[in-house]
Amino acid sequence: MANPRATAATEGGAADLPPASGFRHRFLQTPGLTSHVAVVGEGEPVVMLHGLPQHWWQWRTIGAALGERYQVICPDLRGFGWTRADSPGMGRLTQMDDLLALLDALHLDRIRLVAHDLGAVTAHHLAYAEPERVQAMAILSVPPPFMPFSVSMLPAMRHIPPLLFHRRGRSIAHVFEPPYVVKRMPPETVATYLAPMQRPDIDAAINEVYRWLVFSEMPRMAAGSYRRQRLTVPTLYAFGAEDRPLTADFVRAQCGDLSRFAEHVEITEVPEAAHFMTDDNPQAVERTLRDFFERVG
User: Fold this and answer.
1) In terms of Cα–Cα distance, which of 71, 119, 70 is closest to 98?
2) Which 8-state DSSP code applies to residue 211?
């Protein structure tokens, strides 16, 4: 399923990439982008999509562990990390189109998919639009798009207004503090996640991405668009035990009968973790993903 406009670049790297054991780096030319991808391991492909305000380095521990069994591919999405876009603009399906072009450039017809936080929006777009490309999918810290909205979810959205109206040059380090994490992240970890925001184009992308989320995607979910579709890709939803109100029990109760909207959905809990579970408890997340992928798909 090659895209004639998507061409792979040679192996390369940027001088300011943070270290991560075993990862190799590629920069690929896809429509409108120079996409950075970090890869570790060999075998069946697992693509891991980071959240906001993170980048490929989010998967440094989990990806390396899964790399013992799979080829783990961690791209920087448009507006993040070391990927550079020709234009800051972004439509509703732009990141999905970017991902499809990247898969074509890497000659990947079918993948397992992992996504955290904002990366889950792109993962869902792909799973609904091109289910034959996704063998199985795991979503971290984000509920199914068919889950109905309720006022009890409002505390889970307290971070949205500050990011939607983010002022360029102002730090967003506060998102890595409790209650979003169980234990405070080391300052050097926070600095590594936020380092790309020193670039004006990445800093500006925060507003663009959140406008996309708040004014395009959230209204579709609130209007029940995904409740009129069916998710056919086997999917796991994992929630931090301390990520209130979005715990596994809360999501199960809100969704009700999952079989109305999906073929195969599992909901599970990650202990000793809040929203940023990949830093709170990466070992538990890795075990959860490995178990799911070995059983399903």
Assistant:
1) 119
2) H
CA distance 68 to 294: 13
Q: Domains, the chain, ranges and CATH?
A: 24-295 (3.40.50.1820)
Which tokens go with 14?
A: 């940027």
Residue appearing with tokens 């798009």: 145
Cα pseudo-dihedral 19, 8, 69, 241, rounded to 10:
60
Q: Is 8 exposed, middle or buried (0-12, 13-18, 19+ CB in 10 A)?
A: middle
Residue 261: HSE in the Cβ half-sphere, 13 Å Cα cutoff: 18
49 close to 119: Cβ distance less than 8 angstroms: yes
What confidence tier does 164 reach under pLDDT thresholds 50, 70, 90?
low
Give the Cα separation of 291 and 283 in Å (integer). Answer: 12
68: Cβ contacts below 8 Å, ≥ 6 apart? 41
Neighbours of 201 (CB within 10 A): 13
pLDDT of residue 73: 98
Q: What's the whole-model pTM score?
A: 0.92
**Closest C-alpha among 161, 149, 170 to residue 245:** 149
CB count within 10 Å of CB 155 equals 11
112, two tokens = 């397992």
C-alpha neighbours within 13 Å on the C-beta side of residue 153:
14
- Determine the Cα–Cα distance for residues 234 and 127; give it in Å rounded to an integer: 10
State how far the Cα of 249 lies from the Cα of 77, in Å rounded to an integer: 31
DSSP bridge pairs for 40: 72
Block residue for tokens 């989010």: 58
